[in-house]
Amino acid sequence: MIALRAGIINEIDKLFGRKKYMVLLLVIGVASLGIGFLGKFANNLIGISLSGLPLTVLSIATSFVLPLIIFMVVADLFTAEQENGSIRAIVIRPVSRMSIFIAKALSIEIYSLAVLSVCFITSVFIVLIFGEITASNIVETFLAYLVSFVPILPIILFSAVISQMSKTSSAAVMLSVLCYIVIIAVCTLVPGIYSLFFTSYTGWYKLFIGASMPIISILNIFAILMAYSLIFFALGSFLFEKKEY
Amino acid sequence: MGVSLEVSNLTKIYHNGRGIKDISFSVNEGDIFGLLGPNGSGKTTTMKIITGLSHSDNGSVQIFGKDVLNDREKALENIGCLIEAPATYDYISAEKNLEIAARYYSNVRAPRIEDILTQTGLFQYRKNKVRDFSLGMKQRLGLALALISDPKLIILDEPLNGLDIEGMVAVRKIIMKQAKSKGVAFLISSHLAHELELTCNKIAVLKMGHLIKSVFMNEAIEQCGTLEKYYLETSGANKDGAL
After folding, report:
1. Does A206 contact chain B (CB < 8 Å)?
2. Given an 8 Å threshold on Cβ–Cβ distance, is A92 in contact with B52?
3. Whole-complex ipTM
């Protein structure tokens, strides 16, 4: 556990050591505020109501912004380090490769939570300023943001598998994006298989808002997401274990 | 003196047919053991397997009695290494690089980081990003990363790459001081015979993936006068008509 904790701290340290990831959080915050102002003063123009802003921002974030960010972070923490040899700085330490793999995946999950937190804080802030949200709405919105970390996990591990098969970080990003688009396109063209893929559940937070909560559906989707996570984890950690540097 | 490193029948053949075959040697506490051989002789491959960066086809590596293949984490607890180019994160500072490495060891505290930065002559540059370092400074940082955990066995692959004369002397002093005062064992590879002659007390000659000879340095010097001549003699470079 000590090695895993050290690994997570190290990976987060490295992530925030790169300016682009700090700037990215800033840009997301500004964009969220910008959408809020547009919603208030140009509602007719963009068709976004201010009262539903936090969930609109969440929908945009989980459906395509966050997956793109994840593909970029995974490529930096896995493939780029393998490409430039800096991965050896950790592999030669008294820590198992499995632990290194888990630490990297969890730190990406934590960064994703940071992105969602920025979205939540800025979007709720703007609707609070204009007084268009109630306390119960805030609680419901918070719950929606909180549960959104679950569908992120299989996306991170899916991208980690691709990163192990890519020689360069740019190839890892491109391949991850391409595979993600292909899966979504196939699911759209063949609606019968839509429910079978992990990419279809980025908006599962919708099950947690509203008058009733469909527990059976939530459990089913949770099981699907965990099953995908386990498969991708097993494959990714196996490939990571076999790598030579 | 106890055995720090025991390498037995280590074999690894790459797809192109190159690699190492049946490499065996041992390094005792306080030894400075040199691996001498031309490029492609198998020095780095041997070191990569010892440090767990690569997997062997056959053979075993014991570090203080612990097998690298079966008990990797325990085996790597007491070693520090610098293999090929220094493995550093160039977008963060030298100090941060050392902090990242130090987190994996419960016994390494902030004063140790300062001490190692001073020893390697990097203290005044500790806040600078590694991307701004010269080749020699990166090599010094690589050495600092190898020494950070105060290991009992240190593996250095071509440690003098990129160093100027002052840097080479400083690194040699650090190695000899650690070996004499703390009994740290060193495994050093180089293709520079003169440097190994000045630093090591034991030597193994590698050629085309085979370990040809392993002797004490004073025996090699007694036999041929210099390590360079010993190498040429044992590797058969003269007979092969390479010279």
Report:
1. no
2. yes
3. 0.88
Predicted local distance difference test score (pLDDT) of residue B11:
96
| B91: nearest CB among A18, A89, A244 | A18
pLDDT digits (tens, 9 = 90+) for A120-147: 999 999 888 887 777 678 888 999 999 9
Contacts of A225 (CB under 8 A, 6+ apart): A150, A151, A153, A154, A198, A201, A204
Query: Could you tell me if B84 and B44 are in contact, meaning their C-beta atoms sit under 8 angstroms apart?
Result: yes
Q: Do B87 and A85 touch (CB under 8 A)?
A: yes
Alpha helix segments (H runs only) across chain B: 43-50, 72-75, 94-102, 110-119, 135-147, 165-182, 193-199, 217-224, 227-235
- Domains of chain B: residue spans and CATH: 3-84+152-235 (3.40.50.300)
**Cα separation values, B130 from A103, B87, B89, Å:** 24, 11, 7
Closest CA to B5 of B60, B64, B90: B64
> A120 is in which domain, residue-wise?
2-242
